[in-house]
């Protein structure tokens, strides 16, 4: 999540072959809105993601394609969240022949599965897909070979940090992503990241720092506990120590992240859960 958002125009040409069109859905988690991308230089273009189906988005897509004298041949969906696939219906109403590709596809008109390493090509743009679960189980990133760039979906954002379903899986995916390219990152939300691998390294380091903060706090006596057990903590008690400098309205989201860290540490045998309270499995070893 990010608070001070960089203003982004609705339509931006980011490179000779890449145009970003915002989904028209700004918000706390969508930031400036979902980024959707038109790729290619010829009459046929590839589309990455479809926003959540706002009228302004499909109008901007139409306007851009008219100016480009182009149409969409295929749309590739990075993951199942509504703010990335909600515009599929509008897309098919406007261009009925468009092929929709998604990992672990759901039943729907025109939807086709994506396999790891699959290639998509139009004039001026070649994409290769990679399965990178973590934010969601079906999450895909795409490498644009002409720019050695990556479309990172929601695993890496242009501002702030990402949420995830499983921290261990997410960190594995980040490690894999870092070695797939050397150039820009085009995120699912927020501005372009000039040093994509560098930003991914920052994400990994940030998560490692948060994990160490959780372990360090678990070592300490829990003076804020309302129980007699002062060596165990609830996720929210940990949040109130680790995230004491952020707004309380963000605590529930932070607690989910802390819970993910605790579950990862539990799998590694470093913490144990008693009821709703967590403690180190061996305080002397850690």
- Taking pLDDT < 50 over at least 5 consecutive residues as the criterion, the unreliable ranges are none
The CATH homologous superfamily name of the largest domain equals Ribonuclease Z/Hydroxyacylglutathione hydrolase-like
**Rg, alpha carbons:** 21 Å
The CATH topology of the largest domain is given as Metallo-beta-lactamase, Chain A
Largest sheet, order of strands side by side? Answer: 1-2-3-4-5-6-7
Oligomer: single chain
Please identify the top-level CATH class of the largest domain.
Alpha Beta
Which descriptor suits the 3D outline?
Answer: elongated
Alpha carbon gap, first and last residue: 30 Å
Series of secondary-structure elements, N-terminal to C-terminal: EEEEHEHHEEEEEEHEHHHEE
Fraction in beta strands = 15-25%
Number of helices: 7
Number of strands: 14
Give the helix/strand class: alpha/beta
CATH architecture of the largest domain: 4-Layer Sandwich
Calculate the mean pLDDT score and round it.
93
The total number of structural domains is 2
- Biggest sheet: strands, sense, closure? 7 strands, mixed
Helical percent range? 25-40%
Family: Belongs to the metallo-beta-lactamase superfamily. Glyoxalase II family.
Domain Metallo-beta-lactamase: 33-189
Organism: Cercophora newfieldiana
Keywords: Hydrolase, Metal-binding, Zinc
């Amino acid at each position: 999540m990010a608070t001070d958002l960089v203003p982004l125009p609705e339509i931006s040409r980011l490179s000779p072959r890449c145009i970003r069109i915002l989904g028209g859905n700004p918000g706390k988690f969508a930031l400036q809105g979902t980024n959707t991308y038109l790729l290619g230089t010829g009459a046929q273009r590839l589309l990455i993601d479809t926003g959540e189906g706002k009228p302004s988005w499909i109008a901007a897509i139409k306007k851009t394609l008219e100016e480009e004298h182009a149409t969409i041949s295929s749309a590739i969906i990075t993951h199942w969240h509504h703010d990335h696939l909600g515009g599929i219906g509008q897309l098919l109403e406007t261009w009925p022949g468009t092929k929709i590709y998604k990992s672990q596809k759901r039943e729907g008109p025109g939807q086709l599965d994506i396999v790891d390493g699959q290639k998509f090509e139009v004039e001026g743009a070649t994409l290769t897909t990679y399965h990178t679960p973590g934010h969601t189980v079906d999450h895909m990133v795409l490498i644009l070979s002409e720019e050695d760039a990556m479309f990172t979906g929601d695993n890496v954002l242009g501002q702030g940090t990402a949420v995830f379903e499983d921290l261990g899986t997410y960190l594995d995916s980040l490690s894999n992503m870092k070695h797939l390219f050397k150039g820009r990152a085009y995120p699912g939300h927020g501005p372009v990241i000039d040093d994509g691998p560098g930003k991914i390294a920052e994400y990994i380091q940030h998560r490692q720092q948060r994990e160490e903060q959780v372990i360090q706090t678990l070592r300490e006596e829990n003076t804020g506990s309302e129980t007699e057990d002062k060596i165990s903590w609830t996720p929210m008690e940990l949040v109130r120590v680790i995230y004491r400098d952020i707004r309380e309205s963000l605590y529930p989201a932070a607690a989910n992240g802390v819970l993910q860290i605790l579950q990862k540490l539990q799998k590694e045998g470093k913490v144990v859960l008693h009821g709703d309270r967590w403690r180190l499995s061996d305080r002397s070893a850690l």
